[in-house]
Each structure stands twice: as C-alpha cells, then as structure tokens.
Design brief:
By secondary structure, this protein is mainly alpha-helical. The chain has helices spanning 2-32, 56-70, 78-102, 108-119, 124-127, 129-155, 178-190, 193-217.
C-alpha cells in the first residue's frame, strides 16, 4: 500500500518537477548570457527575477490539490487543511525571523531557526496528509537540482565562480573556501528555507483553491 502511494506521488510530481528543472536551466543560461532584467538577475539572491522557480508553488500547489481532491484524496476537513497551511506560514516566518536575528552571531538559536524553517514544510500534512507529502516530495525534487547547479557554479574557475546568482554572495559575506561557501549559501538555505517555502506556499494556494472551487462543484442538496 505504501509503495503504491509513493509511486502515485512520484507520478503526480513528475511533470511539475521536469518543468521546474527546465526553468532552472533556462535561468542559468540566461544569467550566463547576461539576458536582461527583470527576467534575469545575477545579483546575490536573484533579485526577484521573473524567470525563477520560487513562483511555481503558486501554480503547482493548486494543481496538486485539485488532482488529489478529484481522485478522492481530499482533506477530511477543508477548514482544518487551510488552518494548518496558514499555521505553517507562521512557523516559517518565525524561523526566518529567528535566523535573521541570530545569523551574524550563530548559536543554538540559529540551528533552531533552520529546524523551524524545514519543519514548516511538514505542518501542512497534519491537515491534509497526501497534499503535504506531495508538496514535500516536489520541494526536494525542485531544490536538489538547484543545489547541484550551485555546487558547480561555486566551485567553477578555481572557486571564482560563474558570476551568477547561484554563486554570488552579499557584500559583507565572510570569505570562505568554495566548499564552505557551498555549505553556507547553498546547502543550508536550499534544504531548509526553500523546502519550507515551497511546501508552505503550495499548501496555502492549494488548500484555498480546493476550498473555493471544489465547493462550487458540489451539487446542491436536494429539496423536499
């Protein structure tokens, strides 16, 4: 039973994962070729470039949610699923705020912030298990390729990098050897913040989409 569910989730995220990978490759090519803003941006963090994968959970969250609901795997309670989705946003925000307040002087609180940001990805599953599992799987499918790209970008040219947002760091960032730099600007954010962000945003838009549109599809009760 567990194997059937795992295969089904993989089949559900396959096309979105391929689309996400294509966007990642397009963004890398655009930055290497210095294609114009606002479509591409090589500054640290990417500067809200239009071509990017951070917007995709807004689309794929509802896609996953509607597919699951149509297959009879919707939430036991729509209100509960929306509530936990909103709760996951609060957990993510708390982790982000704590990280921002402690990152300049790292401590156990900084580690707690990372745990909170990653943990936020699993909160939506409390309210809607199949959607939560699907979004976590998609989040890793989306972010692991970025992690691979960042490794090659950071270690390229003897550590000088490619000059893309995948390897550029903020002005006050400490000087690290390439592998240390990869750990701090790639591994930590991609496997904590961005996993949480992808799942949280997807769950919010997905649960709201089902709450709005599935209700419209339900037949009106028969009148006597």
């Amino acid at each position: 039973m567990a194997e059937e569910k795992r295969v089904r989730i993989l089949s559900l995220i396959l096309i979105p994962a391929v689309i996400t990978l294509a966007v990642t490759i397009l963004r890398l090519v655009g930055e290497l070729k210095h294609w114009p803003a606002p479509w591409f941006n090589t500054a640290a963090g990417g500067g809200f470039a239009v071509v990017g994968i951070s917007w995709l959970p807004i689309i794929f969250g509802p896609y996953f949610a509607m597919k699951l609901a149509d297959a009879g795997e919707g939430p036991s309670s729509t209100g509960k699923s929306v509530g936990y989705a909103v709760g996951s946003l609060l957990v993510l925000a708390a982790g982000g705020a704590l990280f921002g307040a402690t990152v300049t002087h790292p401590s156990v609180l900084t580690a707690l912030a990372l745990v909170l940001m990653l943990g936020s990805a699993f909160v939506p599953g409390i309210g809607w298990r199949t959607l939560g599992n699907t979004l976590v799987a998609y989040a890793f499918a989306a972010r692991i390729p970025v992690l691979i790209v960042m490794y090659f970008a950071i270690t390229a040219n003897g550590g000088a990098g490619w000059g893309t947002h995948y390897d550029i760091v903020p002005p006050n960032f400490p000087h690290f050897a390439p592998l240390q730099k990869f750990f701090f600007i790639a591994v930590l954010p991609q496997l904590t913040l961005w996993i949480g962000f992808t799942s949280v945003v997807g769950s919010i838009f997905g649960t709201i989409a089902v709450a709005l549109f599935r209700r419209k599809k339900e037949p009106a009760p028969a009148t006597v």
